[in-house]
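INTERNAL TRANSFER SHEET
From: sequence group
To: structure group
Subject: LigXa-like C-terminal domain-containing protein

Please process the attached sequence and return the structure record in the designated field. Keep the field labels unchanged so the import script can parse them.
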Amino acid sequence: MEGTGQKLSKLVGDAYRPDIEVEAAPHGLRVYALRRLTDEVRHVRITNLVFPNAFVVPFGNSKVFIQWHVPVDDEHHYWYMIFYDFAEPTDKATLLAQRLREVSLPDYRPLRNRSNNWGYDPGEQRDLTYTGMGLDINVHDQWAVESMGPIQDRTTERLGVSDRAVTANRRLLLRAIDAFEQGGAVPARPVDATDAALLTGPLAVDTVAPADGWEDAWRRREAERRARSPWAKP
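Return from structure group:
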């Protein structure tokens, strides 16, 4: 992680209980995960909900990925990944090969799934990984979602402070459903090609910032990153 001399995974692992803050944004929600590294320094990670079904997530100092979940029916959806790098050209061939190794063709269904317990190996869990499901974090996320069943009973949940983004997302969704049922406009942001060309963001940042003034510091880091980028310059 830039400015610390440590890998991001170690920073996150050592400070595994971040403070979570959520704020409304034109695109949906902006979520802050704040980790105290010292009295003077914070690790600031900003992810986004593009309401209602996309997530924009920082990946290190220069990379960002987007997960776009498109419903197929009440129990299934397609998952699209969009990846970009502010600093270096993206190795499309390698990324594609990595993803194709994990799915069957031509239907793109995950090879690790409920039928094979998501590839769980107790020997691997004992000797290599915490989950025993390989090194692909996408499989871990898939297991966490799918293992609950196609439709979960949310009435028995007991959400806490760390679930602020979950509750904020659900409030948005419930308000949108109510508005639609009452004949209101769907809360989306349709734009034509001209307007779309002027849009940037949402801003997804993973950085280290001063404890005092981190709210402004991360925006400066984002502006600096774009100014240095060969393709994202203003």
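Handover comment: The CA atoms of residues 18 and 160 lie 13 Å apart. The mean pLDDT is 89.
Transfer complete.
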